[in-house]
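Render this sequence as a predicted structure.
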Amino acid sequence: MLSPGIKKIINILKADEDSPENIARQYSIIKVVSLVMACTTLITSAMNILQQRYIMFFTTLTLMFVFIGAYLVCRKQRCLALSKLSIVGAVGTIFTFYAVTGGNEGFAILWALVSPGAIMFAVGLGYGLLLSLYFQILLVLLFWTPLSVHVQGLYAEFFMLRFPILHLGIVVFGVISAFSIKAMRVRQDEHNFLLQLAVAEEHKKVAQMTMQTITSICRAVDAKDAYTHQHSERVAEYACMMAGTLGWGSGRIENLRAIARLHDIGKIGVDDAVLQNPGSLNAEEYAAMQEHPVIGGNILQELDLIENVRQAVACHHEHYNGKGYPYGLKGDEIPQESRIIAIADAFDAMNSNRVYRGKRDRDYIINELKKGCGKQFDPELTAVFLELLYHNSIEF
């Protein structure tokens, strides 16, 4: 179980990094932990200088367990900043042990030169600089101050004289390299962002051109019959009102609008004599009329910009009870867009003058919609449409 204080620290480090207040708190915690780490390792060094080797070893071992434990806890709690600092603390503790006990000069070089660079590239430039600064201070204290008397004999004189300078040079080179790589990544990110903007702009242009083409096609379809002028636009409007009532998102509603505008596109392939027949259709003519959903689906099969357009257009004359055409689908087998358009299409047909009859009155239309509920139309969607009619959201 974590203490309340540790939990509070963890919550601060896990909080939203975009908050200026939280960033300030995080830096405060990091500064405190860094100071504790520096003081502890310097005290450890002093223990060695005072020939307290066993205390030094025990302290180093304890510190390693503390830092490793902190890393595991912070990683589990997803505290990125503190977990990275734990890595820095562990590496710094190991180097301090090697440096003040004489170690092996090869290992001293390895830890002092490789570790900060590895930290820079592995967990971030700031943490690498923190470790490098600590190493530099420790080396200067051990090799260039009166404290050097305690490590003479453990290191060669030329090593003690030149190594801090060499280390500083390597650190500067590492910092320059890290900044160069970071700048290159920033430029790459900017390039990718501009590329994404360009792609989005082209996609927008394509979408606009597609919608203009759709509008032109809808007008061409409606122009074949003066009695159905603007029919597709009205059906699209009614369908979108239903979708809005159902809580659809704006993107899906606009997709439905495009589908509804195109629902009768297949009539382009139907003979004008059939479309404008003022009387009852014979069997052959009725069969020809029933082909228009299939024709429409085939025309739109390559149109990927509008989601589900081919299936929705091809199925807009299917009936909820499975007795529609062209495939005899029923219930949820019919795309929801098709079920919505079927109701809007039937309403506009009854609410408009047609070549074979006049416009129907309000009571007749409502009665027909109720009669078709569960048979021709989806019951839930029919209830939604009737509610719009009762509230006068759709005018007769």
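Summary. DSSP finds 16 helices and no strands in the chain. The radius of gyration is 38 Å.
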